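Folds abound. A case:
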Amino acid sequence: MKIAITGGTGFVGRHLARALTAEGHQVVLIARGVDKRELSVRSGNLITFAAIGTSDEEKLRAAFKECQAVAHCAGINRELQAGDYERVHVQGTRNVVNAAKKAGVKKIVLVSFFGARPDCRSGYHESKFAAEEIVRGSGLDYTILKSGMIYGQGDHMLDHLSHVFHSFPLFAMVGFQKRYASPLAIEDLVRIMKAALTEERLSKETLAILGPDRITLQEAVERVANVVGRKPIIFPMPLFFHYGLATLLEAAMTIPLVSVAQVQILSEGFEEPYGNCQPLPNDLVPTTMFTPEQIRKGLPEPGPFSLKDLRCLSRDT
């Protein structure tokens, strides 16, 4: 098959592209080209790289030519300018859907977020849900994956936690209430995506996907700290502190340690998804536990944050 991946150089897109090409599928990686990590994913006999975003419907249509399916992974978790969530998640998804229909694509798989929902005073959550609605009403065959906290090599979660533990002796948890998470291994998410893209499964379904380990957010942080070999002092701080910190970090860092949207995500935990979600078939249920071995596989090179993490010194922003 020939499959296009929007956000193809991002965390999920990179892992999906490698898994698909390993099975002999042709992949069209669609991305602006800003993310310079793991440039090797752009090359290969079965990979075509298209340096475009999701704002140009006609360029997308040309990139989708002869593709049987599209994995729509493009997304952001902060706004550099007002309206970025609307532009990327809503209008970008509309462009992807329109281009896919014009190009004769039969299937679209959308990576959404577990807590995406309308009318919750979060531009991130609301725009991700609006993207879901566009896909559901597209007339195409679709699968919508409302994923929880995803981790693996090249993610933001393990990457940033590792750098935090090498930079500071303290770690502030979001809020005073105990919240739960079920970390989802990228391998499990990719396995589900491949089934939807290449096996004609999960047709016209919306599925909420969490990992098999139900642990508190603090337990997740402590597991990572133990693997990294650090013992930070972990303590709670109120939400207003974290919202203020996230606002500063969004302005200062190329990839912020935590964004405003992520503060809301962490303050809510991962309990019940919004809307009518179908259960996964037994053979696709995530099975990868959040073990020290899995954490170790996803960790970056050890070290603290550096000046290159600041937006003012980055060439990519």
About this structure: The chain is about 40% helix and 20% strand. Residues 2-153+183-212+272-282 form a domain with the Rossmann fold fold (CATH 3.40.50.720). Residues 84-103 form the longest helix (20 residues). The first strand starts at residue 2 and ends at 6.
